[in-house]
Amino acid sequence: MAIIRIPPVLRPSVGGEREVTAEGATVGEVLNNLVGAHPATRDQLFGEDGGLNRYVNVYLNDEDVRVLDGLDTVVSGADGLVILPAMAGGASLSR
Amino acid sequence: MTQSGSELLRHVKEQIKEVDPSEVAQLLGEGVVVVDCRETEELAAGMLPGALHIPRSYLETRIEGVVPDRSQRVILYCASGIRSAFGAHTLMADMGYSDVESMAGGFTLWKDRGYEVQVPRSFTAEQRERYSRHLLVPEVGVEGQQKLLDARVLLLGAGGLGSPTALYLAAAGVGTLGIVDDDVVDLSNLQRQVIHTTDRIGTPKVDSAAETIKALNPDVAVVGYPTRLDASNIMDIIQGWDIIVDGVDNFPTRYLLNDASIRLGIPVVSAAILGFEGQLSVFAPGRGPCYRCLFRQPPPAEMAPSCGANGVLGVLPGTMGLLQATEVIKLIIGAGDPLIGRLLMYDALAASFTELKVRQDPECPICSRDPNEIADEELGVFPDYEAFCAASG
Question: pLDDT of A78-88, one tens digit each?
Answer without folding.
Answer: 899 999 988 76
